[in-house]
Design goal:
Length: 88
């Protein structure tokens, strides 16, 4: 199943991101397609948050993303991250 269609995976990713960045938001309140980084993002994550999340993804899913540009591309939103982790 493609990651963006896997609601359990997306909820896990939302929970991971919120816990790792210590956000005051419930995972269920984060939409699947809202931006995670940038001035328009509700979470307003920065590069330090990205590094922290990438380390947590490596521990939880065994996926290592070391290139900052690739990380920003993969983590545009929950759907793109889920598809990266589970492409088919």
């Amino acid at each position: 199943m493609k990651g963006s269609q896997d609601t359990a995976l997306k909820l896990d990713l939302k929970t991971l991101i919120i816990e790792e960045t210590e956000q005051e938001l419930a995972a269920e309140d984060l939409t699947d397609d809202e931006p995670l980084f940038g001035p328009d993002a509700r979470l307003q994550l920065d590069s330090i948050d990205g590094l922290q999340i990438s380390m947590a993804l490596q521990v939880a899913y065994g996926v290592r993303i070391t290139d900052p540009k690739e990380l920003m591309r993969v983590m545009q939103n929950i759907n793109t991250l889920a598809d990266h982790l589970q492409p088919d």
